[in-house]
Amino acid sequence: MKASRILVTFLAVSVVALSMFVSPSVIGAPQRGGRVVVALNAGWDLLDPAATAFTFSREIMGNIYDPLLIKDPETGEVKPSLATQWTISQDGRTIILKLRQGVKFHDGTPLTAEAVVFSINRIRDPALRSPMAATILGPVERVESPDQFTVQISLRAPFAPFLDSLTEISLAPVSPAAVQKYGKDFGQHPVGTGPFMVTEIVPNQRVVMVRNPDYRWAPKIFKNGGPAYLEELVYTVVPEDATRIAQLVRGEVQVLYNAPPREVNRLQRNPNFRAYFKDQAGFPRSIIMNTSKWPFDDVRVRIAIAHAINKGEILKTVYEGIGGVASLPLSPVTWGYAKSLEQTAYPYNPDRARQLLAEAGWRPGSDGILVKDGRPFRVRLWTTTVAQQLLDAQLQQSELKAVGIDAQINAIEQAPYLAAIRKGDHDLGGMLFVSADPDVLFTISHSSQIGAGWNTAFYKNAELDRLLEEARVTTDPAKRKELYVRVEEHLNKNVPYIPYYVIKRAFLSTAKVQGFLLDVRAFEVFHDVWLSH
Amino acid sequence: MLAFLERRVLLSLLTVLGVSVGVFAMIHLVPGDPVTVMLSEFASPADQQALREELGLNQPLYVQYWRYLSSAIRGDLGRSVRSNRPVVAEIALRFPHTLRLALTALVIAVTIGGTVGVISAVRRNTVFDHVAMVTVLAGLSIPSFWLGLMLIIVFALRLEWVPVAGYEGWQYLILPGLTLAAAPAAVLARLTRSSMLEVLTQDFVRTAQAKGLHHTTVVLKHALKNSLIPVVTVLGLQLGYLLGGAVITESVFAYPGVGRLVVDAILARDFPVVQGTVLAIALGFVFLNLLVDVLYVYLDPRVRFA
Predict the structure, then answer these.
(1) What is the per-residue pLDDT across B220-266, written as a single tens digit (0 to 9) for each?
(2) What whole-number percentage of chain A has pLDDT above 70?
């Protein structure tokens, strides 16, 4: 009896002891090598930081280039990256950056202050028509390199969001030698300083990157200070949702962005997969109303439409509950979000919508569509051809129909869509803008940003302009926040945009992917990623 | 025979020329100013003027057409408005993939369709014949989108016999090839069957049978060759369709073919790419039909000795 007891205990202990040696994927140190394939549901345009504002381009470029500064994904604090030190002058108009030494571009040329100056000036060059210029450069007057590792940026006026701009990949240094060599084709031959180097691009189909073996300048927020663990990183475009999921299940793809919410909910429960979520900061998904076009110039009409949209329904039907309802033109995780104003958003109330429209002089016509001064309320709702956004638009269309507005859907591909809404071809549209700083509100609602920026509601209001301008030059965080509260109040009252959905970015990966993390803009970071067995 | 071929080549060249006129006219038939349609960006008047000059849109139409034609012959089809790469490069990158997929689908279609058609004809009105013809109807009616996804679920996910999607090797051609082959296989099966039936009632077949030749020899050696003429014609047309119309299959399988390129370009208003791709597909189509005509020479002695 006693002997068998001892034997059993001995066996049990040895099994436990052995298992500690036999499961490396549970404890283990990061292993080098391997290939991760990421499947996107749509393509990108160019991989040139100065020339694109496409979200997917910015994500992919995060692997190829390093930003000058970086924001901590947890705290949002600005930390060093390629610039190890930064000082802002007393009057807020001069910023000095000290660059890290020993950094090289993928083509072997060194990172110097001149290269940084070159890169920043590229965005300012009107010939490049950079869609990010108006957004992130503000009043930059001059960029100079007093010595090889010092960059001096002079502003016409203090610009509070500038530190945030320096953390954007759009201001990341590019290799001047490569730009000279490839000229217009630089976007197809990107050369940066990042942990991965591009070896192959098939436009709108795939980007193949390999580890940069010389990489030693990762920001300290990453655990891995040296070259990336992964041997190869590939982005592919698989437009069909079902195919993308099948590839993940089969292991042909290891990371997946933008899976249908239903699949995310399903696969989360499967131990072979992991889901990662991050609330996206910036301007949430919103309905755009072109206030320069009849009848959206009438604020009563806009408020009525705000009452007609059932945000909860959209969240449930299109996004399967992943994410949240937006009440304000900033997402709740953005600094400057005015929680106190949440309840001031116009709630779903179709009766009130009809009432307001009636008060504004609209009468139902014979077919149920509202008519005013002989003109029926027939407008075009622009959207992209991405499946989820189409569904979104269709739901909005039916909600508008319920109050007597006939919205015809016009779906086009993303690139011309973005150009069209900046130009003002639309009546109604949809937009979001990823940003870690509330200055995004300047980008989407200041009158100077019509056409050149992203004020796609074509909204012009002198009072709002003043508030936004003041917020830009106020360096005291408390005062700045207060100004943004007033901005949000104004936008909520006059609704040139109707924010309706706070995006929660969802990524799926196989369980073998370790160290995956999402940065402050909910963009994926692969530098710390390794594959277990 | 030579006269026949000469005539066919000449007609082919004329067809290509006709297509080039149509493709060239496309950019002018679109409502509105082509430049503002293409450059929907907040383009400055200077940018618009630059594009106008680059495309030669301020010249008289016949000058523009001549410029277009002479560049096209030299292999310059302009630059993509989106990616700024030469159109020829964009097409060249994808054409080999499309060709591979189309040929795979064709081989599958011919094998399955031809075999089913011959057997159905020989065993007319049997169970096999009826079942085959119903299946053929299904093959024509099933949307390729649904078929592709079903094939993925069954063969790639459940059975794991083949990969899901990609283009790194011949295994990746199996599922999209099957998906794309469904409709042509169905068409070929029916056509082979009816053509065979017609041939089998001819006198020379009865003669061959009377001579005591083995049944298979009669069917395969004598009857089949003669029934191939209409089938080969349709084959040429099918291949042309496969070259340009595989868009849905390409989307489901994320396959980088010419179909997706042209549809993406249409949606993005990238005219140079649309024009170039349409021209390339038309060229391919015409060339294939020429090949079919050459094949006639061997299949139909009446042509050879005309």
Answers:
(1) 777 887 788 888 888 888 888 888 778 889 989 999 999 888 888 88
(2) 94
Exposure letters B95-128 (e unless 16+ CB within 10 A, then b): bebbbbbbebbbebbbebbbebbbbbbbeeeeee
Is A497:A286 a contact under the CB 8 Å cutoff? Answer: yes
What band does A415 get if pLDDT is binned at 50, 70 and 90? confident
Is the pLDDT at A237 greater than 50? The verdict is: yes
Closest among B259, B118, B246 to B183, alpha carbons compared: B246
B87-305 homologous superfamily:
MetI-like (1.10.3720.10)
Q: How far is B252 from chain A (nearest CA, A)?
A: 5
pLDDT tens-digit profile of A348-369? 999 999 999 999 999 999 899 9
Here the tokens at position A390 are 């189409």
A330/A437 Cα distance (integer angstroms): 10
| Residue B117 DSSP label | H
Contact B90 A203 (CB under 8 A): yes
- Could you tell me the pLDDT band of residue A146, with boundaries at 50, 70 and 90? very high
Searching chain A, which residue's CA lies closest to the CA of residue B93? A202
- What pLDDT score does A24 carry? 43
Tokens encoding B88: 């020829």
Predicted ipTM?
0.81
A204 inside 8 A of chain B by CB: yes
A426: Cβ contacts below 8 Å, ≥ 6 apart:
A288, A290, A380, A382, A410, A420, A456
Residue extents of the structural domains in chain B: 87-305
Q: How far apart are CA A149 and CA A166, in angstroms?
A: 16
Residues in chain A closer than 8 A to B253 (CB atoms): 243
CB environment A379-408: b (16+ within 10 A), e (fewer): bbbbbbebbebeebbbbbbebbeebbbbbe
* Number of residues assigned to chain A: 533
Tokens of A265: 């909910």
A242 reaches B (C-beta below 8 A): yes
B19 at the A interface (CB within 8 A)? no
Residues B66-106 have pLDDT tens digits of 888 888 888 888 888 777 788 999 999 998 999 899 999 99
Q: Is A105 helix (H, G, I), strand (E, B) or coil?
A: coil
Cα–Cα distance for residue pair A387/B180, rounded to 1 Å: 23
H helix intervals, A222-334 = 241-250, 261-268, 299-308, 311-317
Is it the case that residue B295 has pLDDT exceeding 70?
A: yes
Please compute, for residue A507, the number of CA atoms within 13 A of its CA located in the half-sphere on the CB side: 23
Q: Check CB contact under 8 Å for B268 and A416.
A: yes
Residue that the structure tokens 């016409």 belong to: A156
pTM for the model stands at 0.82
Please tell me the distance from the alpha carbon of residue A193 to that of residue A82, in angstroms, as a whole number.
9
Return the H-helix or E-strand segment holding B176: helix B174-200
B273 touches chain A (CB under 8 A): no
Does A422 touch chain B if contact means CB atoms closer than 8 Å? yes
* Strand order across the beta sheet in which A94-99 lies: A83-88, A94-99, A150-155, A140-147
What confidence score (pLDDT) does residue A23 get?
A: 45
* Contact predicate A321/A277, CB 8 Å: no
Using a CB–CB cutoff of 8 Å, tell me whether B271 touches chain A.
Answer: no
**In which residue are the tokens 């490839």 written?**
A182
pLDDT score of A216: 95
Dist. CA A334–CA A435, nearest whole Å = 8
Q: Does B82 touch chain A (CB under 8 A)?
A: yes
- B40/A202 touch (CB, cutoff 8 Å), yes or no: no
Contact A242 B264 (CB under 8 A): no
